[in-house]
Structures are given as structure tokens and as C-alpha cells.
Amino acid sequence: MAGSDWLRVVGYLVVTGLVLRAALLDRRRSKTGDAAGPTFWIATVGALITLTIGRIGGLGPALADLARARALESQWYATRRPVQVGIVVAVALIFLAIVVVTIWRVPTDRRRYFALSLAVLTLVTYAAIRLVSLHGVDTMLYHRELWSIRVGTWLELVLLSVAGLVAAAHPIAPDEPSNTATTTAAPRPAPAHDGPATPLGSTMRR
Q1: Cβ distance 160 to 11 under 8 Å?
Q2: Which of 18, 85, 88, 191 is most buried (CB neighbours < 10 A)?
């Protein structure tokens, strides 16, 4: 595995660790029964672990080679481009639809998950588009270099850096407000009078 590949593996591991840390802090302080919390954290960590395993084992190129071999056997390799373009467009539209629905429908008290979910979703979308192995995308990612490093490597490192920063700065759930009833001092009763009030002058002798 090349040095840049190991660097990306380390990046995925660091991001996964930061997400786990944010999850523990969030669940430790959340005492309001937030149902979206556990589901979100399980899905996020699961996606990152899958991406990490795929990067370590080189599953992306292996799956792309397998699909290429199947296309050659089925004799539609020469006409694969429209199918690949359709898949890439579908992946991009699904990504945009998820973002729009999240912004539109997610309640305000769940918005703290949006930034991190967007960062991880972008990583997943990027991996899915790479997996399609569209010729134009492959040319840009794998055959163009910036400072002797492939553009695809730079892009993935940038996405990992953003995800790591977002995970490190993820706002944790607020503490549950105290249910202790506040007591107020009872008003002091007015002094009782033994009899009707009399003018001061009536008690004086003439």
C-alpha cells in the first residue's frame, strides 16, 4: 500500500475515533430520551468503519475490476458509459435529496447532527462515485497530480479533514433542565389588630 493510502487510512481511523468520542459525550449528557441520537451514531460509525475497511483492503478498485470483467463477459463493456453516467447522476441526486430533506424536515432540536452527517455523507458519496469508475472521473482523480500527489488523494484528504474538524467540534446534547421546583418565600401576614383602629386624638384627655 502506498504512503498516501496509509495516510488516508489513518485519516479514516482518526475521524472514526473523533466520532466515537462525540457519540459518548453526546449520550452521556443527553438525558432527554433523544431517539435520533443512537440511530445517528450507529449509522455514522458504521459508514466510517466500512469506508476504513474498504480503504485498507482496496475494495474499491477490486469491485471496479470485478464489474469491468463482468461487463466484458456480458459484451456490454463498450456501451457501459451511459450506464455509468446514469449511476453517477443518480448518486448525486440522492445526495442532494437527502441534504434538502434534512434541512427541510429535521426538527430544530436535531439540527446539531446535520454538519457531521453531511460530512460523512459526502465521504460516502465520493466513495460511491469512485466505485462507478467513470472514465472522465477516473482521469481527473487518478491521472492528474498536484505537487506530485493525485487529485483524488487530495480531495479525499480534504474531505477527511473537514469531517474530523466537524466531529471534534460537534455540539453535544444539553443537560436536562432540573425538575426541582423553585420555592418562593411566602408573604408575611399583616399584623392582626385586637380592635378597630381609633384616632390618636381620642385617647388623649382634653
Answers
A1: yes
A2: 18
